[in-house]
Amino acid sequence: MDKFIIEGPTPLKGTIPISGSKNAAMPLMAASLLASSPTKLNLIPRLNDIYTFKKVIEETGTSVVFDGGSNSMVLNPANLHNTEAPYELVRRMRASFYMLGALIGNAGEAKVSLPGGCAWGPRPVDLHLKGFEAMGVKIKLGQGYVFASIDNASVEGGEFTLNPSSVGATINLVLGAVKRAKKFVIKNAAKEPDVVLLCRMLVEMGADIEGIGTDTLTIQKVDELKGVEYSNDPDRIEAGTFMIAAAMHPESDVTLTGCRPEQLGKFPESFNKLGVECTIDGSVIRIKSTDNLQPVSVTTKIYPGFPTDLQAQWATLMTQAGGTSMVTDTVYFDRFSYVPELNRLGGNLKVEKNRVTIVGKTQLSGASVMSTDLRASVSLVMAAMVAKGTSEILRVYHLDRGYEQLEEKLNRVGASIKRVPQ
Residue 117's pLDDT band (boundaries 50, 70, 90)? Predict the structure, then answer.
């Protein structure tokens, strides 16, 4: 297990390329199991979660060749024979549960372990299972596994309303329906870019999906999907994270390349209130910070609202703003494990239910702090880069799940981060 040693404060100056999206890549990998020929995916990030999901898929007999140098992956399900996704792999991350839809779609049956993942908040899979039952899939639970099956080659389908809207459930139901459901309608479907990208790839493979990008998806069965070459989206959460990191130090001047700014939803509206200079030119975003950062309160909402995956970073940024602000999370109510650690670094944050109040500006000072999940971890790294002195960030394996070459990217633009054994 590794830790980071970070010396601060350090302004960030230079160019950071944005990597491919982890959250979008894994649904594309799962969709590849539905094809009758190999699929090549581009812009796949080198992350622990990607390697874990690669192993989950390989358990089925599918060939997966990942070229980390070119960030490309070729998946060939020609020899898929095992329809089980085992506990020892699925427990490592919740996204492995996409195997349920992929295996139903490929083989009409699946045995998938109930998932694991970050240690915060309940994110039950009840919606996924109820949706499959509404589709006509038989679902049984036992010994920590979900057993899914259909009686014939297809099911009638039907209609299911997601309440609340869920990215994971939308993706899983789409994967299961495209080759098995005669007609299936998903209402209150998630509209996140990850869902849109998946649906567009499936259509290119031959799927029949209407309403892409809206909250109602209508899927009609096709007999065959072909393999394609397809490119992943850049990671909008990584882009937002680096925008926030650049804004935290008054002397920073950072250019982000390879972005999809239109996928940031409402985030730029809040960012533009900070008093920071932000210019967008196509796929390039440039941030020049200020010594008079304004406090801006935000409330997370489902896409295109302010992303819950950026709320920890935003609260960290607000420690450097001149006044009081609040961050309210309406998506997940228990995502504030970073607050005690930020306070150890000198922040002034207080949590009440699903809201944290931040009083700034505070001078942060180096300390030893503990990571608890992916976004909490990166928020502590950001705080340490503006803190005076030396900080230790423990359990940085969380970061390796979701940020490709984080310390290398930040060190190239002026940070002082060393990875050492813990």
Answer: very low
Query: How many C-beta atoms lie closer than 10 Å to residue 29's C-beta?
Result: 26
Query: In order of start, what are the domains of the chain with their CATH numbers?
Result: 2-19+234-421 (3.65.10.10), 22-231 (3.65.10.10)
pLDDT in tens, 144-153: 899 999 999 9
For residue 419, what are its two tokens? 């990875």
CA dist., res. 333 & res. 353, Å (int): 7
Q: Is the per-residue pLDDT at 276 higher than 50?
A: yes
Our answer to whether residue 278 is catalytic in this structure is: no
Q: Measure the CA–CA gap between 146 and 159, rounded to whole angstroms.
A: 22
- Nearest CA-CA partner of 258 in 12, 13, 20, 71: 20
CA dihedral for 338, 344, 347, 352, sign (positive or negative)? positive
**DSSP string of 334-346, one letter each residue:** ---TTHHHHHHTT
Q: How far apart are CA 48 and CA 397, in angstroms?
A: 9
Residue with structure tokens 């999809």?
Answer: 260
**pLDDT digit string, tens, across residues 311-349:** 999 999 999 999 999 999 999 888 999 999 999 999 999
pTM assigned to the model: 0.94
In Å, how far are 40, 86, 304 from 127, measured between CA atoms?
Answer: 31, 21, 21
Catalytic residue among 118, 199, 259, 278: 118
What is the 8-class DSSP label of residue 293? P
Integer Cα distance of 272 and 265 in angstroms: 13
